[in-house]
Amino acid sequence: MGKAIVSTALGAEGIEAVPDRDIFIADDPADFAASVSRLLEEPGLAQRMGRSARQLAVEKYAWSSAAATLERFCSDILEARRTR
User: Fold this and answer.
1) C-alpha span between 37 and 11 (Å, rounded)
2) What distance in Å separates the CA atoms of residue 65 and residue 79, rounded to the nearest whole number?
3) Which of 68, 7, 73 minimizes the C-alpha distance to 36?
4) What are the tens digits of pLDDT across the range 8-37?
5) What phi-psi label fits residue 52: left (phi over 0), alpha (psi between -120 and 50 degrees) or beta?
6) pTM of the entire structure?
7) DSSP notation for 22-39
8) Does the N-terminal or the C-terminal CB of the chain have fewer CB atoms within 10 Å?
9) In a 3-state reduction of DSSP, which class is residue 71?
């Protein structure tokens, strides 16, 4: 949805997001609140981070991306079997 994200490290685990570009990581309540406040006070930053997070989501986690990765994987397996 193109929104800036604040998460804990555990909540962002397994996502290839770059901290301070795609996402803010904050593990304690004060840091979490400060990150949210910063995004509310700096709408330009929130928009940039939101765009970056959306681009990451589309490139890495959209169905079309997952399908293309699976297709490459299957093609590689078939090619390896042909060359044996």
Assistant:
1) 19
2) 21
3) 7
4) 999 999 999 999 999 999 999 999 999 999
5) alpha
6) 0.74
7) TBEE--SHHHHHHHHHHH
8) C
9) helix
